[in-house]
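User: Hey, quick favor. My workstation is busy. Could you predict this chain's structure for me?
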Amino acid sequence: MPSANPGLSRLAARDRLWLGLLLLIVLSVLLWSGHEPKDRFTWFLEVLPVLLGLPLLLLTYRRFPFTRLAYGLMTLHAVILMIGGHYTYSEMPLFEWLQAEFGWARNHYDRLGHVAQGFVPAILAREILLRTSPLRPGKWLAFLVLCVALSISVFYEFLEWWVALASGDEAVAFLATQGDVWDTQWDMLLAWLGAMAALLLLSGVHDRQLRQRGFL
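Assistant: No problem, here it is.
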């Protein structure tokens, strides 16, 4: 029997191809990341969100499929986490080269990670709120998305603190403070700025994808 909406069927087929490619990328990088990482304990802590999130996304795909934009951003964030887990955030080779080239006082890969920690959850929070609440695009939605993104960043700083208390010196690479006493504050600020950037740059694209799938 032909589909009642051929346009949606073609869109779903393209989505599945896209998701298959993203899954292949994540699994490939995960295998590479886990092969002789610099510090196995740090690797586990850094990639734990991927190890928990990937099965959850696979299990909930049929009931709550996200947009291609959201899945693409989650893949990008996963890759950032897995690269950081392999090298540790304070010793990522490309950013070590940049540090030497530009005379930076630290390896800024962890800064990139915290921008992503706001940028990606902002779109996920936006999609969940638009699809499960009466909220519609506007100021209140943007305000609540920023609150969610900042809350996630704050909670992650709590996790780093608890891990440090529980494991002592073993958590040094995971914390990646690199001697900066204001590292925690910088991390939260960058996550907030990342969330703001995501809303400013991607809200229009996100709305179009949501409408195409009948979610908005």
